[in-house]
Amino acid sequence: MSALVIEDVEDAGEVIAVRARTRDEAVACPGCGAQTARVHGYYERMAADVPVDGRRVVVRVRVRRMRCPVLGCQVQTSVSRSLASWSVTSGASRG
Ligand SMILES: [Zn+2]
């Protein structure tokens, strides 16, 4: 969780939208362990949807999709590991 950088916080009335991204640092390939900082692309992921003080705080994290530099590695592209282990609830709004 410490590897996040808050990029933007938008107060949209009942909902507070927080945008964050991972730090631009190398991560280890889950397949072969090679360190890589080569970014293959990005996608956005809902990381949290938490009610605070009667308002909803929605956190969206831009997750890097990394590319392993090792030829023949079984995990040529992988999601940044620290985020892959996050538990993500379904995006359905409750109450
Ligand atoms: Zn690899």
Major β-sheet annotation: 5 strands, mixed
β-sheet strand percentage: over 45%
Helix-strand pattern, N to C?
EEEEEEEH
Task: Report the end-to-end length measured between terminal Cα atoms.
Answer: 27 Å
Oligomer: single chain
Integer average pLDDT: 79
The poorly predicted ranges are 82-95
Q: Considering DSSP H and I runs of 4 or more, what fraction of the residues is helical?
A: under 10%
What ligands can be seen in this structure?
A: zinc ion
Report the principal-axis shape.
Answer: elongated
What is the SS-derived class? mainly beta
User: Number of folding domains?
Assistant: 1
Tally of individual helices: 1
Count of DSSP E strands? Answer: 7
Q: Write down the Rg.
A: 16 Å
Task: Describe the protein in words.
With 95 residues, the protein is mainly β. It has one domain (4-84). It has 1 helix and 7 strands, in the order E-E-E-E-E-E-E-H. Strands 1, 2, 5, 6 and 7 form a 5-stranded mixed β-sheet that branches. A two-stranded antiparallel ribbon has the order 3-4. A hairpin with a 2-residue loop joins strand 1 and strand 2 (15-22). The longest helix has 4 residues, at 81-84. Mean pLDDT is 79; it is low at 82-95.
